[in-house]
């Protein structure tokens, strides 16, 4: 049973940001530490870019609340009527600025300043804004120093999905050669791949936010998203192949080379992702020869033979669609492939020296 109370990195970062912000504010002798804690908490996000956006929005709302609270506090005091009037102005101001999400914190700051017993409301407002600023700066610093590596997470997810697709391709090939034997839980595994692709797309979105500060990797996140979307289409193709393969009632001679072609596509798929040559000309020639073999097939003599051949013909069409889609996969795992090739060369050189 999974742990429902798992303490992740973001929770630890948030607690650290809140604690450090309060420590600094208390060391400076500020009366209240609430704003520093609130701003630090909402600033700690999953990406550094998102943290900057959130902190800017919250600091703006704190500044607006401080100004309105000071003005209405000096003019109307801290009567119930004054609190009601400042609330109206807070809501109208936030709506005018399109800050609907900041209405609550703006109102809390304004009412908090008006209800304070500080000798000087302007100085107390400055103190509150500085407290919020400290919370934002501390949280930004911690989020920058301990930023998660979403790129590695996306690559890992891509590798997992590619492996699952390869297993499913092998299952379809086996079904073509062993009529009447269907792979277990095939469609459930395809549904799992769909869910994993959604997770991968979310991770790539987070990585895309990280790239907003990097000019050298501007399109890498887009390549990841492109590969994941193509994987989604490939999963649908494999489900259709599976449905056609399990319809085959008799063995068909052409099933063996087509199954071999599907297994070759497993290698093409990983080679495309790792930026290695795929021998496209040889595969194109193989497909053309298989198409010629289909044209020379004798007419079926039984109903079972007709269903098997018809299913195989449609399955071959799906494989060709899968092949075309595979040719569009971007080399998103190229770095790992280059590292593996370098390690292989080093090992070979080491063996030669030993000889």
From TrEMBL:
The chain crosses the membrane at residues 20-44, 56-75, 81-97, 104-123, 129-147. GO terms for cellular component: plasma membrane. It is found in: Cell membrane. It comes from the Bacteria. InterPro entries: ArAE_1 (IPR010343), ArAE_1_C (IPR021062), ArAE_1_C_sf (IPR038323), UPF0421 (IPR052984). It is a multi-pass membrane protein. Gene3D superfamilies: Putative aromatic acid exporter, C-terminal domain. The keyword Membrane applies. Residues 154-322 form the Putative aromatic acid exporter C-terminal domain. This is Putative aromatic acid exporter C-terminal domain-containing protein. The lineage of its organism: Bacteria, Bacillati, Bacillota, Dethiobacteria, Dethiobacterales.
